[in-house]
Amino acid sequence: MKSLLKYLKGYYKESVLAPAFKCLEAIFELLVPLAVAQIVDVGVRQVNHTRILQMCGVMIALGVIGLICALSAQFFAARAAVGFATKLRSSLFAHIQSFSYATTDRLGTSTLITRMTGDVNAVQTGINMFLRLFMRSPFIVFGAMVMAFTIDVKLALIFAIVIPVLAVVVFGIMLITIPIYKNSQSALDRLVGKVRGNYNGTRVVRAFNKESDEIHDFDERNQALTRIQRFAGGISALMNPLTYVIINAAVIFLIQRGSLAVDSGRISQGELIALYNYMSQILVELIKLASLIITLNKAAASAHRISDVFATQPDEGKQISRKSDATAYALVFDRVSFRYHADGDEALSDISFSVKPGETVGIIGGTGSGKTTLANLIPGFYTPSSGNVFVNGKNTALYHGTELTDMFGIVPQKSVLFKGTIRSNLQWGAEDADDDAIWKSLELAQAKEFVAEKELGLDEPVLQGGSNFSGGQKQRLTIARALLRRPRFLILDDSASALDYATEAKLRTALSHLEDKPTLFIISQRTSSIMHADQILVLDDGELVGAGTHQELLARCEIYREIYRSQFPEGGDAE
Amino acid sequence: MKLKQNVKTFGMVFKYLKIYRIHFAISLLFTAVSVALTLYVPILVGTAIDYALGQNAVDLTSIQQILVKILISVLITGILQWLINVLNNRMTYGIVRNIRHSAFVRIQQLPVSYIDSHQTGEIISRVVTDVDQFADGLLMGFSQLFNGVMTILGTLIFMLIISPPVTLIVVLVTPLSLFVAAFIAKKTYSMFKLQSEIRSEQTALIDEMISGHKIVVAFGQEENVQERFDEINHQLSKASLRAIFFSSTTNPSTRFVNSVVYTLVALTGALLCLRGGSMMSIGKLSSFLSYSNQYTKPFNEISGVVTELQNALACAARVFELIDEPVQIPDCEMPCDPETVHGDITFREVSFSYREDKPLIRGFNLDAYAGQHIAIVGPTGCGKTTLINLLMRFYDVNEGSISLDGEDIRDYTRKKLRGSYGMVLQDTWLSSGTIRDNIAFGKPDATDEEVVAAAKSAHAHSFIRRLPNGYETVISEDGGSLSQGQKQLLCIARVMLCLPEMLILDEATSSIDTRTEIRIQKAFTTMMRGRTSFIVAHRLSTIREADIILVMRDGNIVEQGDHHTLLAKNGFYSELYRSQFANQ
């Protein structure tokens, strides 16, 4: 958490000035009871009109100076907090962008989003409040005690006793309730989980007539949450009454002892009033302090979650073979294994194969056989747990920046488009592409027709997530985007899954007729999509169980034969 | 209009408050008493101080008596305050629980069309966040408001008793602080609005770019994205600084006004003391000073509470809007529900559309006899799922009728109708719980043997066995670490366990590899034997054997018949069929 403090850099001045001004304000506030004591003791008792007017003037002056100090403090605090949050957000975003595929997969996008937004805001509020109040409240509490000592040491001892007692009560209750509130947070998460699950599964729930069971389950979680909240609330409920009673007990004690002191002439009546006022100020500040600590506690939890993200390093170090493979191959997998978690099972084991430039490679296998994992290893999105991947003779781990990914055009399984226009989306592939080039790639991707039908053509807006296009249209746009880069390697990861067979067939034909044909990887569950590839890799449970052409594999790979037969039962259908 | 809505919201709030009316009444009563006692203490302190005039002029006995009074008041106040907190807690969390319950129950009764058109996030924020904010703001806000008003009134009365002229000064000057607060709030409103606009723009960007992170990386767009982010971030920074700073001037400004009030009280009080008489004494001045602090504080709080109340009311309105949402058409009162159903399904002149301006199915007829298999095919997005929505009564037809065994399906209870179908959807939804719970979802009293048998026939047994805790492995709401295919197998096992008279398989094997599919297909064949089955698929090979094939295109049924008739017809079906096996 401390690591986040570096984002305050550049705002040190503000971070010091804000609490300093707050303390100044507090000092002026602490002087007020002394002025009142003067009014009582000198002004009223000795009938001194001038002193009363003087002291009232002093009080107004204290108010004005206090206001100026407070405004300066608020300004500096806001500047430091906002500046901090801005820098933090920017570098957090940059950090997240540097994550590898494996890291993003592991952390999940929704957590990253809440950390970027809600958590950063909570920290901003926390810092702002901290700078404004954290110095002020203890300062007033102890200041009041110090002022009491200047009036009368013996009576001030009451302050010295009551402050630690109050501190124990306030912090004790908070220490007890904080873990309970954490529990209530997880109970709330369970409740949210229920609502989300139920809502998303409406059809299944209703088809199985499970509505009343669902309500029952929800009620249980709801009640569990209520129980925790009431319990925590019951303990917090003690805070105000206890502090009130303690402070007033101290007041009673103070007046009892104080009246004796007045009787003996040790202090004046006005000084007794001043002591009483200081006691009241302590109560007010303590309440503020308690609510501040709750805010800070939330901010600390958020800060913790943010530092967790920063602590996640983009990639784990691994011995990299520096040997280069200067053969004519475009891609070489040399005994590559991959696991997602250090202690998990291997998602891919000991895969070796090589691909010549311009070849078409089909990758086929069952659900969860490791096809997509393999595809992500090719452009270095995943780093192999062992073994090496060479692209154009160079180990993928040795490429820098975007050098490697620049050579690739990738069409992922799930079509992702971004808010903007069709043109701005396609230009992700090549920033300076002109309209001619864009239309050409749209044509290749079988998307020309529907884009041309759009009123605004290439300027047709794309809503967030591409929600104004159908699944098939989105997929074709993502294909066009990848083609626009004129990549040396093209990866189609089950990219035709949302396309009907007719469109997919047209797409494949168009791709095979490209001039400077890229090295093409087609990942699919459909044999028909890959049967004409120069080389077909058959994956099963993370292992490479067959490699070769369609005919070769039919002859010697049992699993390939089974997959093929499952799609072309009579064999003759495929002509 | 807005007022009317607020009144309506308040009406709903009181409905939920009614159960806790005793809590509520006691809480208000205790508040009144504790406020009065809290205000009484400074008077007592003032009197005590008046008894301590100076050296050898202290009436110790009287002071002692007063101190005992203070002690009693303080103890009673402490206990009352605690009771108020406890009561408010019980009330607040109880009402929150009850509202959440109503909202959840309502979700179960809403027409599916509502659920299809409202996002999960939106519903969750209503059921969770809005209810919380409502409780915090409205209930806590209300008790704060009541406390504040009581304090103001009480202080006024006590001050009037002590000294009417000084009270007048306090009453005249204090509104100034309200005015200052209102002025600042008005000025900062537009700043906050700007801030939240920029913030939501930024959140949208974050959402988009983090969700699409892989694409950002694949296309090497990190720098451009960061640039766009930093630009919005910079704007946000400027807007936030303004909003935060200007809004934070409220407290110091009102505090300043208060210190002016305080000074004026000290001044007039002191001058009155000098004039002598019973108008004012030093002790009274001391009580007065402490009052003028207490009197101004609730004003600051109330201005805060009012904004909070408005927000809370808006939240409450959103929750109640959900709870008030019309439910689906209730089941008919005299349902025909027979013991067993046969499985004859007839569509007569059925017309249906999701939106009035976009007609979909028009004048559709179909006769499916018990035990027949009906396949629905067509390109992506052509509306295949619509038919399923109608069969299961997730949606009702606009015109015409669908009947089961000759009776309109609207004459059955939904429970009976839906219970007669076994359904596997493309969307693999599992509930949180163990694997076993999920398989036994439709038949919770199933024996272990039955569960395992169902899993075996769905080819799920082997992967379940390999899970850390086998059938007792707990999975989270979205199926967690299970692959799409494994989840699909569980959904199939779920149906295998309780096999009703009719089946609906909506792209049931879409995320299963074809080898496993072949095996499941065998299980499906056994399962479908003698059962009226509706099968949606874009894999034509799996539906060739169907008795009737419905070919859909753009929401309409364009062809209807068996495989051979349709191929012979040389229409859209044959085009689709051939394209599957087209070669380059």
Topology:
The complex is a heterodimer of chains A (575) and B (584).
Chain A: H1 12-44, H2 49-97, H3 101-107, H4 109-134, H5 136-151, H6 153-200, H7 202-207, H8 211-236, H9 239-264, H10 269-311, E1 331-339, E2 346-355, E3 360-365, H11 371-377, E4 386-391, E5 394-395, E6 408-411, E7 420-421, H12 422-426, H13 435-444, H14 448-453, E8 461-462, H15 471-484, E9 489-493, H16 501-512, E10 519-524, H17 527-530, E11 535-540, E12 543-548, H18 550-556, H19 558-567
Parallel strand pairs in A: 3-10, 3-11, 6-9, 9-10
Antiparallel strand pairs in A: 1-2, 1-4, 4-5, 7-8, 11-12
Helix pairs in contact in A: 1-2, 1-4, 1-5, 1-10, 2-4, 4-10, 5-6, 5-10, 6-8, 6-9, 6-10, 9-10, 13-15, 18-19
Chain B: H1 2-17, H2 21-50, H3 60-109, H4 112-117, H5 120-162, H6 164-173, H7 175-211, H8 213-218, H9 222-247, H10 250-275, H11 282-324, E1 345-352, E2 361-368, E3 373-377, H12 384-391, E4 399-404, E5 407-408, H13 414-419, E6 421-424, E7 433-434, H14 435-439, H15 448-457, H16 461-466, E8 474-475, H17 484-497, E9 502-506, H18 514-528, E10 532-536, E11 548-553, E12 556-561, H19 563-569, H20 572-580
Parallel strand pairs in B: 3-10, 3-11, 6-9, 9-10
Antiparallel strand pairs in B: 1-2, 1-4, 4-5, 7-8, 11-12
